[in-house]
Amino acid sequence: MSEIEKYPSKFMPLNKKTEIKSKKILGLTAPVYIREIARKISLYSQKIECEAQGKSKDSKKISINNLGRWLFGVPGYNGHCRIVSRDKKITIYYPKESPENIHIFINLLKKTIEEEI
Q: Is the pTM higher than 0.90?
């Protein structure tokens, strides 16, 4: 059985970017589109350990316990990426110092989206 990797909970600068070509102009819907595609990649659900927590509307704690939640965030926890769309290009900004599986995941996400073109 493999050990669950510990992910940082502190803010990290978004100093790396990946550009993704899209088949259509997404505008403000790009973050939703990216998350929907991301959820279909198995690595999204990889269990992690992170001290940070989100909080629901009724003040229940939301664990940051998988790679997707750490990267994209949950209510009360912003995550570690920003998604910007311009024309048919989506740019994901995230920390260069992210755990290795984040870099692998972003590359899988890029490949999945660009294969749709």
A: yes
